[in-house]
Amino acid sequence: MIALSLTVLLAVMTGLGGVLLWSSGAQAQQTDNASAGQAPAHQPSSRLSESDIARMLPSTDMGAGASMHGDMHARAFDGSQATPFDAAPIPQNPLAPGADAIGAKSCAVCHALETIQASHSLHVASFRAGSANTGPQASCEACHGPGSAHAKNPAAAGLIIAFTHDAKTPIETQTRTCLSCHVGGARQHWIGSAHQERGLSCTDCHNPMTRSSAEGVLAKDSINQVCATCHQDVRAQFNRRSHMPLPEGQISCVDCHNPHGSITQPLLKTDTVNETCTTCHAEKRGPFLFEHAPVGENCLNCHSAHGSNQENLLVLPVPMLCQQCHTNSQHPNDLLTRQNLRNGLVPDERVMERSCLNCHSNIHGSNNPNGAKFHQ
Question: What residues have CB less than 8 Å from 290, skipping those under 6 apart?
Answer without folding.
Answer: 365, 366, 367, 368, 371, 372, 374
